[in-house]
Amino acid sequence: MLALRPNCECCDKDLPPDAVDALICTFECTFCADCVETVLAGVCPNCGGNFAPRPIRPAAKLSKYPPSTKRVLKAEGCGPRKAA
């Protein structure tokens, strides 16, 4: 089940469960559409993967399957993933 993380890892923007601008990678790294487009150039800085829109959990399911409250923020800053 998706964690539905509550914020953008780059700019810390709130991304509630019904946010249409929340994007995730295959590892559920969560970013807002603005950061994905303007800062990350569509590449996850954590894994190098691409992004897809985060699904919206139906409101009726949120009480049984609540979103995560753990905020994740990149302490070293946010930018394109560096090649190894």
Care to describe what's here?
- The protein has 84 residues and is mostly loops.
- The protein contains 1 helix and 3 strands; from the N terminus they run E-E-H-E.
- A hairpin with a 5-residue loop joins strand 1 (22-24) and strand 2 (30-32).
- The radius of gyration is 13 Å and the shape is globular.
Kindly list the characteristics that best describe this protein:
Herpes Virus-1; three-stranded antiparallel sheet; little secondary structure; 84 residues; single chain
Chain-wise SSE layout:
Blueprint lengths: L21 E3 L5 E3 H6 L13 E2 L31
Antiparallel strand pairs: 1-2, 1-3
Q: Whole-Å distance between the termini?
A: 31 Å
How many E strands?
Answer: 3
Share of residues in helices? under 10%
- CATH architectural type: 2-Layer Sandwich
Mean pLDDT: 93
Order of strands in the sheet with most strands: 2-1-3
- Strand percentage lies at 5-15%
Order of helices and strands: EEHE
- Classify the secondary structure makeup into a structural class: little secondary structure
Number of domains: 1
Broad shape: globular
CATH T-level fold name: Herpes Virus-1
**CATH class division:** Alpha Beta
